[in-house]
Specification:
The protein has 257 residues and is α/β, with parallel strands linked by helices. The chain has a single domain, classed as 3-Layer(aba) Sandwich (Rossmann fold), CATH 3.40.50. Helix content is 27%, strand content 22%. It contains seven helices and ten strands. The strands form two sheets. It has an eight-stranded mixed β-sheet, sandwiched between helices. Strands 3-4 form a two-stranded antiparallel sheet. Strand 3 and strand 4 form a beta hairpin. Bound molecules: S-adenosylmethionine. The site of S-adenosylmethionine has 18 residues, from strand 10. S-adenosylmethionine binds next to strand 10.
Length: 257
C-alpha cells in the first residue's frame, strides 16, 4: 500500500487488493449518485452561465446494479478502516436509502446526517417539484472509540455566539456550489469535473474525524478535493479514481499545495 498516491482503477478491486486491512483512519466517499440518464442542459442561463446536468457514464446503473455496487465498495471500506475509523458518504434522495441500509448491514453506527445547503442552487427547470437545494453527508463509525475533534471544529466554525465566542458546529452546512477561483476549469472554460465538492466541506470533515499524520482515503477522487485538503491539513491520503481522464487534473491540483 502506497501513501499519498492515486490508484487508477475500480475502487472495490483496489480496496480489496491493494489497501491494508484496518489501516485507514477516515474514508470520505462521494460515489456516483446514479442520477444521470437524460442530458438536461440550459445554455444561455443569465444568472450563472451555461448549465449542464451531470450526465456521465460512471453515473448510470440499474437500481439492482447500484445496490450491489454500493454493497461492494462499502464492504471494502469497512475492511480497510481501523476499529476507531469513520466514513462519510455523500448522497441525495436518489441514493441515500441504499447508502443507509448498506452501512447498517456492515455494522457501521450512524452518528449524523449532515445537510449541505447549497446557497446558490440552480432553479428547477421542470417546475413540477420543489427546487433541489441540498445534499446529504452520512457520517458513520466502525467502533465505539471514534475520533471527534470537537474543539478544533468550534475554532473553524464561521457561526459565532452573540458575544462573538465560539459555537458548536451544527449539522447544517451552508456553502455555495464550487465556483470562482476554486472551480477547476478546462481550456475551454468548462468545469473540469462535473461534481467538484467544496474544499470547506472537506476541511470540516478531515478536521473533525482525523489527526495530523493519519490516513484519509477517498475511493472516488474525482477532481481530488479530498487529497488536496488532506495534504493541506498535514494528513496522509490515498485516492482511487477509475477514469483516466481525471488523473492529470488531480496530480496538477495536489502539486499546488
Ligand atoms: C461524484 S464524483 C467525486 C467528486 C469529488 N468528490 C470531487 O470533489 O471532485 C465520483 C467520481 O468517482 C469516479 N468513479 C465512478 N465509479 C468508480 C469506481 N467504481 N471506482 C473508482 N472511481 C469511480 C468517477 O469517475 C468520478 O470522478
Amino acid at each position: 500500500m502506497k501513501l499519498n498516491n492515486i490508484y487508477n482503477g475500480d475502487c472495490t478491486e483496489i480496496l480489496n487488493k491493494k489497501i491494508k486491512k484496518s489501516s485507514i483512519d477516515l474514508v470520505f466517499a462521494d460515489p456516483p449518485y446514479n442520477l444521470s440518464g437524460n442530458a438536461l442542459k440550459w445554455q444561455g442561463n443569465k444568472t450563472g452561465g451555461d448549465w449542464f446536468m451531470v450526465n456521465e457514464k460512471w453515473d448510470k446503473m440499474s437500481d439492482p446494479d447500484y445496490f450491489t455496487f454500493t454493497e461492494q465498495w462499502i464492504k471494502g471500506c469497512h475492511t480497510v478502516l481501523k476499529d476507531n475509523g469513520s466514513i462519510y458518504v455523500c448522497g441525495t434522495f436518489h441514493n441515500i436509502g441504499e447508502i443507509l441500509v448498506v452501512l447498517k448491514k456492515f455494522g457501521f453506527l450512524i452518528k449524523n446526517i449532515i445537510t449541505w445547503q447549497k446557497t446558490n442552487a440552480m432553479p428547477n427547470m421542470t417546475k413540477r417539484v420543489y427546487t433541489h437545494s441540498t445534499e446529504l453527508i452520512v457520517w458513520a463509525v466502525k467502533g465505539k472509540k471514534w475520533i471527534f475533534n470537537y474543539k478544533d471544529l468550534k475554532k473553524i466554525n464561521p457561526d459565532k455566539q452573540k458575544d462573538g465566542s465560539e459555537k458548536q458546529m451544527r449539522d447544517v452546512w451552508n456553502f455555495p456550489l464550487v465556483q470562482g477561483k476554486e472551480r477547476l476549469r478546462d481550456k475551454s472554460g468548462k468545469a473540469a469535473h462535473p461534481t467538484q465538492k467544496p474544499e470547506a466541506m472537506l476541511e470540516r470533515i478531515i478536521t473533525a474525524s482525523s489527526n495530523k499524520g493519519d490516513i484519509v482515503l477517498d475511493p472516488f477522487m474525482g477532481s481530488g478535493t479530498t487529497a488536496f485538503v488532506a495534504k493541506k491539513l498535514k494528513r496522509n491520503w490515498i485516492g482511487i479514481e477509475k477514469e483516466n481522464k481525471y488523473i492529470k487534473l488531480i496530480k496538477n491540483r495536489i502539486k499546488k499545495v
